[in-house]
Sequence to fold (172 residues):
Amino acid sequence: MSQLLLTAVGADRAGLVSDLSGIIASHGANWLDSRMARLAGAFAGIVLVGIEDFKVEALKDDLGTLEAKGLRVTVTDTTAQDDEDEAVLVVHLVGHDHPGIIHRVTVTMARLGVTIDDLSTGLREAPMGDGILFEAEVQCRITNATTLEDLRSELESIATEIMVDIDLVDRS
Fold:
């Protein structure tokens, strides 16, 4: 059994997900996990599917036909990983919006060997008309390269530099 990670991008329109899921189902593949969003009028999605090995090439070929309908699908073969010994954390960040916030946080995590499983960001109005706030939520894993205390310390030190509040919750 193979697992494939599909990335799908195109101009948003009704029926994109139906077209994609129809091809996946027609090959007997199992839709395992997904994230999809409409961003600035475009559709962007990632889907993890499980499929029998002998059906992979036919699925890839049929997914290529979606380009004629405005949806470009890229297929990446994946291997399931065992993450049982790693601490799972959620980092929530909020502050006035300005360029570079995500880069500063993620470069710090990368330097410490922290891997990001899920990252969600967005903008919202600050209370009482005080500008635009940037929010991010990062689900991540601490590998053997660092400790929870080191990560907390590093994030607290950059929070002041980039003028954001950062909360870290251990979910393991």
